[in-house]
Every structure is written in C-alpha cells, then in structure tokens.
Design a protein that fits this description.
Layout: E1 2-5, E2 16-19, E3 24-27, E4 35-38, E5 41-44, H1 48-60, E6 62-67, E7 83-89, E8 102-103, E9 114-115, E10 128-139, E11 142-146, E12 155-161, H2 176-188
Antiparallel strand pairs: 1-2, 3-6, 3-12, 4-5, 6-11, 7-10, 7-12, 8-9, 10-11
C-alpha cells in the first residue's frame, strides 16, 4: 500500500490518501452479492430463505485465493495455520452504496436503522470486507479455503493468520438485533 500525505487546510479531513494494491484475487462460484443497494439502503437479493441457503452453501464450498506470483515467499509457513483472516475489496458494491451512512442490517426492516460502522454491511465508504476462513490446502501461490463469502473475482488486499488469543477474551457485548442476526447466520450454516 502506498500512502501519500494529503495537502489540506481543513482539519476535518483525513490527512492521507491511500492506494491499496491487490495481492491476489478470489475464484469461486459466487457470481453476485447476497445483498444489494436499494433506494432505502441495503436490500436482500431474493427471499430470505433463499439467501440463507446461499450462505449455507458458500460456507461449505471451496474457494481459491490466487496470490500474485511476484510476491514470492509471502505464503511461506502459512500451511501451519488452520484458519486465516482474508481481507478483500467488495468490488461489486455500487458506488451509490458507498455513500450510505445508515442501513437496516441485512436489509431487514425489523432491525433498527443503524450507522454503517455499527454493521457488517458491505455498503461502506471503502468496501473492505473480512472473513475468517478454514485453510485446507496450499499449492504454490494458491490457497484453497472454505467459508469465504466473497464474490468471484474479488481482489484480495491482505491475509493474516487467525488465532483466538489475539482477540478479546473478556465478555463481548453486542446489540440484541445483531445477536439475532448472528444467530440466524450461525443456524443457516448448519
């Protein structure tokens, strides 16, 4: 990533412009996002039960993460981990979705309208998404993983090893509406 100082007289703006370069891309059978931007925010693409089936299927399918060949050595030792954090660019999120500041999480009208940074919505000013995946195989510059919910062709911007000890061990609090959505997502992966 290249970071360049932004010349600005305004103290209300971030002081940097950034350029993020893809380190690879994703290959799988997910051709379109489960959620899309609508006039009122994020909307589910299809019936919710259909979306649940797609989420269940994507959590069990194998995806390939193809790392750029010029990054020789960047994967050395990665096979020693069972799980990885994959950061990717949600390249199919429309520009107008990047302007949204609030959404009903998962397009669910019964969930409260919440600020984008309080949700896992793909509609973000910078559509950087992250998923924990299970690593099943490393073959040269290709990682085979399960549990990746990214759309085919999504640029990968970073990968890190996942281990529980690097995350909070104390009780974590989330809103009730998020707990319900997480439970539904967990149930549909069974």
């Amino acid at each position: 990533m290249e970071v360049s100082k932004k010349l600005s007289n305004s103290s209300s703006e971030a002081p940097y412009n950034m350029i993020i370069k893809a380190v690879g891309f994703i290959r799988n059978n997910i051709n379109k996002p489960f959620l899309a931007a609508g006039d009122s925010g994020i909307e589910i693409q299809g019936e919710f039960d259909d979306i649940r089936a797609k989420i269940r299927k994507s959590s069990q399918e194998t995806s390939e993460i193809i790392i750029n060949r010029e990054l020789v050595g960047i994967l050395d030792g990665i096979e020693q981990y069972s799980h990885l954090l994959v950061f990717y660019w949600a390249h199919k999120v429309p520009e107008k979705s990047r302007l949204l500041t609030k959404v009903h999480p998962m397009g669910r009208k019964e969930a409260p309208l919440a600020g984008i940074f309080c949700t896992c919505s793909p509609a973000r000013p910078n559509p950087v998404l992250m998923t924990v995946v299970k690593l099943s195989e490393v073959n040269g510059n290709v990682l085979k993983v399960t549990g990746l919910d990214a759309v085919d062709g999504s640029p990968v911007i970073d990968i890190k090893p996942y281990f529980r000890e690097s995350y909070p061990q104390e009780e974590v609090f989330i809103p009730e509406w998020m707990r319900k959505l997480q439970q539904e997502a967990h149930d549909c992966q069974k």
